[in-house]
């Protein structure tokens, strides 16, 4: 069995960062008795549970990279798929790929395998900053999609968002995502672990009050505010789509087909929002509770709770491709063609047909 780190004895104003997405978990102990108890327990994790964790993290990382990569390819390879909504979906996929490449593997390696930060001070800053950026990009892209759907359905007589406007909005999303968590990059530093040559990647604040208010502001901006906006927009959309006819909509077969198409798209995006909410809720709840009562981190099984919450949050990076494949016929057909392309030998003739031509038939 291997030992999972439970924190370190650091300066009172230093917050030990367990390299999760955007917040620090305060693992410094309240008193010596807690330290002694944890040292006796040594927080050993059975090898079977470690293997299960390896499999869980590796699975979501590979699924996120592969699934979102295919989503990007489907949209960019077929001109008919290059719609405003699909541009936002590609941007969402890019954010999830960034999460899968930078956040999941390093968090997994540092917390479960090594128990320290071996990658140097520069990459400590890059890593913690990139995690926050990727979460902001995903959250605000979901808002951009909801605004696009809101305008299209609630105000159908207004001009639709153009592709240029969509690209400018995507640029604005990334600008906000890059600027908002800049303090995280500034305060992220390496701190010696228990007076050894091992280091932890931490956020070092002048006072705990600064850390608390920044943490609350960050969580509000990247989870609670997007959640409120998404609930408002999709509630209004659902009332219009399922509750009454869109203003100016006639009663004929063509309009029935358009209404059905709108409902399918809205259902898919509501499912994406629901996945975002449910995946991130446990970790955010744990972090809020920890900020109000740091003593919860002395619980003997807190590491299992943290890993469960963290894994669920990370798993959101691979959820959306499954949702698209399940709820959208065009994406489902695109995934099917891609899998056929790579699953059959050249003798079957699949490799002689370009993926672009296959997707063009979707």
UniProtKB/TrEMBL annotation:
Keywords: Cell membrane, G-protein coupled receptor, Membrane, Receptor, Transducer, Transmembrane, Transmembrane helix. It is a multi-pass membrane protein. The chain crosses the membrane at residues 54-76, 88-114, 120-147, 168-192, 212-235, 265-283, 303-327. The keyword Protein biosynthesis does not apply. It holds the Pfam family 7tm_1. The keyword Hydrolase does not apply. InterPro entries: GPCR_Rhodpsn, GPCR_Rhodpsn_7TM, NPY_rcpt. It comes from the Eukaryota. Residues 67-324 form the G-protein coupled receptors family 1 profile domain. It is found in: Cell membrane. Its main location: membrane. Belongs to the G-protein coupled receptor 1 family. This is RYamide receptor-like.
């Amino acid at each position: 069995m291997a030992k999972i780190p439970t924190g370190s004895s650091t300066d009172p104003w230093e917050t030990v960062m367990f390299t999760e997405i955007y917040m620090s978990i305060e693992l410094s102990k309240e008193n010596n008795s807690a330290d002694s108890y944890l040292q006796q327990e040594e927080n050993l994790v059975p090898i079977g549970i470690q293997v299960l964790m390896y499999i869980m993290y590796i699975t979501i990382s590979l699924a996120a990279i592969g699934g979102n990569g295919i989503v990007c390819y489907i949209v960019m390879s077929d001109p008919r798929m290059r719609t405003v909504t699909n541009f936002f979906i590609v941007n969402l996929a890019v954010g999830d790929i960034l999460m899968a490449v930078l956040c999941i593997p390093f968090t997994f390696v540092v917390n479960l395998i090594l128990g320290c930060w071996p990658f140097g001070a520069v990459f400590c800053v890059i890593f913690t900053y990139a995690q926050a950026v990727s979460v902001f990009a995903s959250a605000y892209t979901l808002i951009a999609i909801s605004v696009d759907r809101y305008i299209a359905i609630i105000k159908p007589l207004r001009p639709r968002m153009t592709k240029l406007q969509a690209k400018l909005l995507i640029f604005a999303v990334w600008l906000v995502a890059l600027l908002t968590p800049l303090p995280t990059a500034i305060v992220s530093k390496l701190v010696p672990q228990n007076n050894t040559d091992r280091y932890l990647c931490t956020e070092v604040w002048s006072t705990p009050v600064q850390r608390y208010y920044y943490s609350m502001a960050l969580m509000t901006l990247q989870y609670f505010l997007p959640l409120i906006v998404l609930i408002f927009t999709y509630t209004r959309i659902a009332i219009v789509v399922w509750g009454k006819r869109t203003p100016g909509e006639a009663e004929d077969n063509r309009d029935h087909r358009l209404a059905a198409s709108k409902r399918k798209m809205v259902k898919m995006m509501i499912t994406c929002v629901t996945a975002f909410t449910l995946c991130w809720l446990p970790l955010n709840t744990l972090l809020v509770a920890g900020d109000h009562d740091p003593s919860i981190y002395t619980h003997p099984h807190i590491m299992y709770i943290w890993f469960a919450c963290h894994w669920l949050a990370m798993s959101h990076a691979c959820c959306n491709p499954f949702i698209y494949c399940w709820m959208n016929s065009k994406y489902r057909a695109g995934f099917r063609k891609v899998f056929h392309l790579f699953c059959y030998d050249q003798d079957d003739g699949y490799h002689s047909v370009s993926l672009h031509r296959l997707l063009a038939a979707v």
